[in-house]
Design goal:
The chain is mainly beta and 439 residues long. The protein is 8% helix and 28% strand. Bound molecules: the ligand Nc1nc2c(c(=O)[nH]1)N[C@H]1C(S)=C(S)[C@@H](COP(=O)(O)O)O[C@H]1N2 and molybdenum atom.
Length: 439
């Protein structure tokens, strides 16, 4: 399926010091529909048809991730409270990622933060009556707080924290893994405000045998079965006690978007975002590794030792993902930009490294043969992403790829190709690449 129309856009210039109005400058398709596995599920297409008031006739050839233009006819965004630039991967449950060129802000705006729902968000949320209960084998006695009490009785803290889905980058694994075919956009870093989980745990009183905390949220299972838990994951006590581990009600000074956990959620920066429970109603303090929904089985786990692509791996040989690996994104220019020969190309982006920090970012315009150091800012606080920028000169007319590679504080760099295959397609931290033409 070829789509030549966009290639006919006339030559546009990218000026080095110009903020890039990306949509005018694209010479190719931003994503080749042939390269994207996972066309929208039949059920999703049917549902979209209902919303659009008629079936999508050529649904079979509709590229994955395309949001039907009809959804925007009234100037409405397809997802409530979210930016129209998000790419919808699934609509039941809703999953949408952020294109790299929209992630250039130091604090990802709330409407640009990706959405990863495993179930159906609660529809009637009343912050006045919302409560959080802390219970489990390892609390002395359970305690319930209203949202008002959390806000009134504990110190507020704000941290910039990276949220990245463990499955970000999954689309590149081969053999493919089932699940949302995230490309690069299941990540963001925002200023989260709330109370420290630690302060609440201390207030409740935790026994010395505590091993893990787990969460429960108010979302419901896609099947409609009210007895089924959507997801209930968690973190070991060492992460729970960290100063940056928050029970948050604000993002960048605003209420949480409905799709991102309004009115209350956990935020564990640097860990798979599946630990950051949304629509938070309950925290359990366990005397063993939490065994909630999607803690057990193969979810959010990778093989203990490397395996060949496509290998069958038994559960006993899998381990729970903890800190996320070092990674970076080129947020400007947007892939597909054109540059006039003789001008230098300003490249910039973000880099992050799970529980660690990033000590170096390099860029390459020759497929990794040579690398040039980028100027790298420090993080706003521990577990925040870091901005970087570089200026490249591209010597002659033609096609280039710009690659970025980050190295963490312990000296581990991003791989240039897709790293270790794993059955569920987690932790792809391969270098991000964009295309640029010099004309
Ligand atoms: N209650 C609840 N919490 C949840 C989820 C969910 O489906 N339900 N999804 C988890 C997963 S897998 C991810 S990646 C993050 C996504 O957070 P976001 O949608 O705010 O970006 O939320 C996590 N917390
Ligand atoms: Mo996730």
């Amino acid at each position: 399926m070829k789509e030549p129309s966009q290639n006919k856009i006339g030559i546009q210039e990218l000026y080095a010091d110009d903020p890039i109005e990306a949509d005018r400058l694209v010479w190719g398709r931003e994503s080749d529909p042939n390269s994207r596995r996972g066309f929208l599920k039949k059920s999703a297409l049917l549902l979209m048809g209902t919303v659009l008031g008629g079936k999508i006739v050529h649904a079979a050839t509709m590229p994955a991730g395309l949001i039907p233009a009809g959804l925007f006819l009234n100037g409405e965004e397809s997802l409530p409270g979210k930016h129209p630039g998000l790419v919808l991967l699934n609509d039941r449950p809703i999953n949408a990622e952020t294109p790299a060129h929209l992630l250039g802000d130091l604090d990802t705006p709330a409407d640009l933060l990706f959405v990863r729902n495993n179930g159906i968000p609660p529809t009637k949320v009343n912050p006045q009556t919302w409560t959080l209960t802390v219970e489990g084998e390892s609390v002395h006695s359970p305690k319930t707080y209203t949202l008002q009490e959390l806000k009134a009785n504990f110190q507020h803290h704000t941290y910039r924290l990276v949220l990245e889905c463990g499955g970000n980058g999954r689309a590149e694994f081969n053999p493919p893994a089932t699940g949302n075919q995230w490309t690069t956009g299941a990540v963001g870093c925002a200023a989260w405000t709330g109370v420290r989980l630690k302060d609440i745990l201390l207030d409740v009183g935790i026994k010395s045998d505590a091993v893990y905390v787990g969460y429960y949220g108010a979302d419901t299972h896609v099947s409609g079965d009210p007895t089924k838990v959507v997801i209930s994951r968690g973190v070991p006590m060492s992460k729970a006690w960290e100063e940056e581990s928050l029970i948050a009600w604000e993002i960048n000074g605003e209420e949480l978007p409905a799709l991102n956990g309004y009115p209350l959620r956990l935020v564990f920066g640097g860990w798979p975002a599946s630990t950051s429970g949304k629509w938070l109603t309950k925290i359990v303090v366990r005397n063993k590794v939490h065994d909630g929904e999607k803690m057990t089985g193969m979810s959010y786990k990778v093989p203990k030792t490397p395996v060949a692509p496509g290998a069958e791996v038994g559960e006993e040989n899998m381990k729970i993902i903890e800190s996320m690996p070092v990674k970076s994104l080129i947020t400007s220019p947007k892939t597909g930009g054109m540059l006039r020969l003789g001008s230098s190309l300003a490249v910039s982006g973000k880099a992050w490294a799970g529980d660690l920090s990033v000590k170096r970012v390099e860029v390459s315009s020759d497929f990794g043969a040579t690398w040039q150091a980028a100027q790298l800012d420090g993080p706003a606080n521990r577990l925040a992403w870091q901005s970087w920028k570089a200026s490249l000169s591209l010597p002659e007319k033609g096609y280039y790829e710009i690659w970025a590679r980050a190295t963490d504080s312990e000296g581990t760099s991003q791989p240039m190709v897709v790293p270790g295959w794993n059955p569920r397609g987690y932790l792809n931290n391969a270098c991000h690449r964009i295309a640029v033409k010099v004309v």
